[in-house]
Amino acid sequence: MLALLAFTFTVGATTQGLVGMGVGMVGAPVTALVEPRLVPALLLWIALAMPVVTLSRDRHAIDWRGLAWAVPARIPGTAFGVLLVGWFSEREIGLFVGGMVLLSVALTVRAFRVPVNRVTLVGAGFTSGVTGTASSIGGPPIGLLYQHHDPAQIRSTLAVYFLAGAAFSLIGLGLSGQLESSTFWLAVLLLPCLVIGFVVSRLLHRVLPRHQLRAGVLLVCGLSATALLVRSALG
Questions:
Q1: What is the largest CA-CA distance in the chain?
Q2: Which 3-state string (H, E, C) describes 164-179?
Q3: DSSP states of the chain as a string?
Q4: What tens digit of pLDDT does each residue of 98-150 get?
Q5: How far apart are CA 143 and CA 149, in angstroms?
Q6: Does residue 194 have a pLDDT over 60?
Q7: Domain count along the chain
Q8: pTM here?
Q9: Which structural domain range is residue 207 located in?
Q10: Rama region for 113: left / alpha / beta (φ>0; ψ in -120 to 50; rest)
Q11: Beta carbons of 97 and 228 less than 8 angstroms apart
C-alpha cells in the first residue's frame, strides 16, 4: 500500500508541478481504493505541503485580487464539507469522490471558458471548500476559472489557494474530531514523493507537450474514478 501511495503521489506532484493541480485528482481515487479511512485527511495534509514546493518557483505570478474573493468563500464551504464527512459513510464518500473526479475530467475535456469575476470566484471558492473537505478534491472549481491564464499564474495562484484551503479543511476536521495522528505521520513519510515529483515536472516542462500529459492524466483519473465508483457501488 505504501509503495502504491508513494508512486501515486509522485505522479500527482509531477502533474501539479506542470499544470497547477493533480495531487488530489490523481491521489484521491487511488487512496480511497486502497484505504478509504485515509480520505480526506491524507490528501489534505499532502495538499498543505505541496504548495510550499510549488511556490518556491512561481510565487511571483500570484493573482492576489482573485484570491481575495475565492479564499474567504472557502470557509463556509469547508463548514458544509465537514458536515458531509460526519453525515455519510465511507462508501458514500467513495461514490462522491469518484463522481467528483469524473465530473472534473468531463469539464476539463470540454475546456469551456468561464469568466473570472467576483461572482464566479466566490462560487468556485465555496464549491471547492465543500468538495475539498469532503473528498480532498478542491482544485477543479478554481482550476476551471484560471485554465486559460498564464501557466505560472495558474500554478502559483492555485498553490496559495490550496495552502489556505487545506488549512481550513484540516482545522474544521480537527475541531470535529475527525483527524488521526497516524494519517499525519503517513503524510510526512510521503513528503519526499512531492519533492521528487516537483523535480521531475521541471525536467519534463521543456520536453513533454502539455496536451499529451493532459490526456494521460485525464485517462488515469477517469479510470481510477470509475474503479472507485464500481467498488463503492458494490459495497
A1: 47
A2: HHHHHHHHHHHHCCCC
A3: -HHHHHHHHHHHHHHHHHHS--HHHHHHHHHHHH-GGGTTHHHHHHHHHHHHHHHHHHGGG--HHHHHHHHHHHHHHHHHHHHHHHHS-HHHHHHHHHHHHHHHHHHHHHT-----SHHHHHHHHHHHHHHHHHHS--HHHHHHHHTTS-HHHHHHHHHHHHHHHHHHHHHHHHHTT---HHHHHHHHHHHHHHHHHHHHHHHHTTTS-HHHHHHHHHHHHHHHHHHHHHHHHH-
A4: 787 788 778 767 656 778 999 999 999 998 888 888 777 778 788 878 877 87
A5: 10
A6: yes
A7: 1
A8: 0.81
A9: 2-234
A10: beta
A11: yes
The set of residues, in sequence order, having a beta carbon less than 8 Å from that of 35 and lying 6+ positions away, is 1
CB 135 within 8 Å of CB 97: yes
pLDDT for position 167: 92
b/e per residue 55-90 (b: at least 16 CB within 10 A):
bebbeeebbeebbebbbebbbebbeebbebbeeeee
Q: Cell for 137?
A: 478534491
**Gyration radius of the chain over CA positions:** 16
Grid cell for residue 70 = 475565492
At 22-81, the pLDDT tens digits run: 888 788 888 988 888 898 899 999 989 998 888 877 788 899 999 999 999 999 999 998
Number of C-beta neighbours around residue 189 at 10 A: 12
Reading the block at residue 11, the C-alpha cell is 505522479
- Contact by Cβ (8 Å): 82, 226: no
